[in-house]
Amino acid sequence: MIDWLKYRNIDHSGSMLKPQLYQLILQNKARFVEYKIDHLLQEHGHSVLRLPPYHPDFNPIENIWAMVKGYVAKKNVSMNMDTIMRLTKEKVDAITVQEWKNVCDRAGKEEKAFDGQDAAIDGLSERFIINTGSDESSDDSEDEDAMSGEEEL
Fold this sequence. Notes:
Layout (H helix, E strand, L loop, with lengths): L1 H6 L10 H12 L6 H8 L16 H16 L5 H14 L2 H18 L3 H10 L11 H9 L6
Helix pairs in contact: 4-5, 4-6
Protein name: Tc1-like transposase DDE domain-containing protein
InterPro entries: RNaseH_sf (IPR036397), Tc1-like_DDE_dom (IPR038717)
GO molecular function, one term: nucleic acid binding
């Protein structure tokens, strides 16, 4: 772990424990991941756009895939792999240019609606942080202790 951090010039302390080193690696790992396909595409004048995971509204293929899965689920009565494969190919072949355009346009609209809201979302999420290590004592905490049956000795 230490060698990995040193090789990438990531500041760390020699007194850090394995869990702390692991967290530091996780925080930095994405910057150092390289894929051969990215280099191949760059050589041919293309760039790679990585879409955020778990955001199907920003990713048109997810919506197309949902259409295919819905079609297969609706038509599949035999529950065998040959039928599933046939229905999948049938729906994929039937998807029109207009359907692709529609899901791409919708993804663009979702992205524009989301763009610029990062600061607002960060501000809202700050409100949900709960400090559990407060040194201050309050009447509320004493009331909670009384309700839970705990008493201060």
